[in-house]
Amino acid sequence: MLQERKNILKVLLNENRSAIGLWCSLAEALTTEVIAGSGVDWLLIDAEHSPNDLRSVVLQLQVAAAFPCEPVVRLPSDDPHQMKQFMDGGARSLMIPNVRSADQARAVVSAMRYAPFGGIRGFSVGHRANQFGRIKDYHRDARGAQFLAAQIECEKGVANAAEIAATDGVDSLFVGPGDLSTNLGAMGNPNAEHVQEAIASVLEAARTAGKPAGILAPQKADADRYLADGFTMVAVGSDLGLLARGADNLVASFRSEVA
Fold this sequence. Notes:
The chain is of the alpha/beta class.
């Protein structure tokens, strides 16, 4: 029988070590494979703001499995039926957007767990998540390898961050600075003072609950600052950003020479 491999992201965060991640937004297995080989600790396969579906996500999970990093799948919503499909497809680490209350967090946790352990996840004997029936006691032990990041992206989520973080089964709070700044009236400016205060309060809520906190910070100065502040699950860029900015900068370097 096969054994499920350790969730390296969960191990690092439980040891209070930093885990550096990269966003995968291009919905393409080949680019995800390139990113996965960079030495990154975790990947975010985005099914919320990218043209991903279940099949494209499964393909990316397959290529990521060749590397010592943990793929996290961000779903479009907290729909339990969708969660079941993606989890059976092998997504054991999930990020759920815009979690606003502890009740919502508990519902998400329930959707990830099987019935004997306080959940409602549908039972299937063989699927990709348990290597098609080859992982012994998968259904009993599945929770041990699972990881759940609850995204905090609005004023209500910030206000309830302490209760969300304290929810059993929530492994991390993760700040979405774009949505949070937008919802706090500072669209495109997560460094606005009141947004930074909200971000700091989410970090403190996670710390109080003994949970790690994460954030997306594609600017190195921001990422360094957040790491110094105590965020440990930090995404520092994306495949889309690396390709677009790299292409822009390369072409611009020749345009300037011509000028």
